[in-house]
Design brief:
Largest sheet: 7 strands, parallel
Strand content: 15-25%
Structural class: alpha/beta
CATH architecture of the largest domain: 3-Layer(aba) Sandwich
Oligomer: single chain
Number of helices: 10
Radius of gyration: 18 Å
Order of helices and strands: HEHHEEHHEHEHEEEHEEEHEEEHE
Distance between the termini: 25 Å
CATH class of the largest domain: Alpha Beta
Strand order of the largest sheet: 6-5-4-9-12-14-15
Helix content: 25-40%
CATH topology of the largest domain: Rossmann fold
Length: 254
């Protein structure tokens, strides 16, 4: 399914709170209980949400991400706004690393008219997109290809990235928790992301607003390790204070 705007708002509300009652969703969205139940059932059938008696929660909230094909359609408009903002900030003739994720894939599409870029990526989808830009050199990381999303992970990927020092690492993330930690689901992917962060002169985080207060199992980094944050809406509390404390330059692509 391709969620409509109401369903995207419903999903964002559940992701922000972890679990919520059907009545609360109806009040928040200004619709009937029947409409909420119908939307919840459709998204539960797609694996986007899990129902329980009287309410709904995020499925497998800390150990497994939503499937890549479903993530491509979720918050697509916000991801495209983020991608345009990131691309506008990327100077020509610089070196980049882009990691795994549908947001970084949107950024790759937004970079198709840039010149003089040298891009290292552990995301085969990013490599495929940017290979269409004749003025961009693409370097693909070696390692194990994860079939579900074409991401490259594992120790070989860590060793490969360790050879480089790029101008900017542009990373996506699955979750940003209220303690300022950036989190993901796959330990092998996390080790690669940590190496990417440590081999960049600047680190830019691109994350849509659904990632705030979302739980995930493995810590990648902390906001203190990020130089710039691009998102699609003002972050909820306590994140403005955390971003200020960490001296992260923040941009909401509204």
């Amino acid at each position: 399914m391709k969620p409509n705007p109401r369903q995207l708002n419903l999903l964002a509300a559940v992701q922000q709170q972890g679990s919520v009652t059907v009545e609360h969703l109806a009040d928040r969205l200004g619709v009937t209980l029947q409409t909420v139940r119908r939307d919840v059932q459709r998204m539960a059938d797609e694996g986007l949400l899990t129902r329980f008696h009287g309410g709904v929660r995020v499925p497998s909230s800390t150990v497994e991400n939503i499937a890549h094909q479903q993530r491509e359609t979720l918050h697509a408009e916000g991801k495209n706004r983020i991608a345009k903002a990131v691309a506008a900030a990327v100077p020509p003739d610089c070196s980049l690393i882009l990691n795994i994720g549908t947001t970084t894939e949107a950024i790759a599409r937004a970079l198709l008219h840039h010149t003089g870029l040298r891009v290292i990526t552990n995301n085969l989808n990013v490599a495929t997109i940017l290979s269409a830009n004749p003025k961009c050199e693409v370097i693909v990381v070696g390692g194990v290809v994860r079939g579900r999303d074409q991401g490259i992970v594992g120790e070989a990927a860590v060793d490969f990235i360790g050879q480089f020092k790029v101008d900017i690492a542009i990373i996506g993330i699955s979750a940003i928790e209220a303690d300022g930690s950036l989190r993901d689901y796959d330990f092998r992917e996390v080790k690669v992301s940590q190496t990417i962060i440590s081999h960049a002169r600047e680190v830019w985080l691109a994350a849509d607003s659904s990632k705030f207060n979302r739980p995930a199992m493995v810590e990648v980094a902390n906001l203190h390790q990020i130089d710039r944050l691009f998102t699609d809406a003002p972050p909820p509390d306590p994140f403005p204070a955390l971003l200020n404390e960490a001296q992260v330059r923040f941009e909401a692509a509204l």
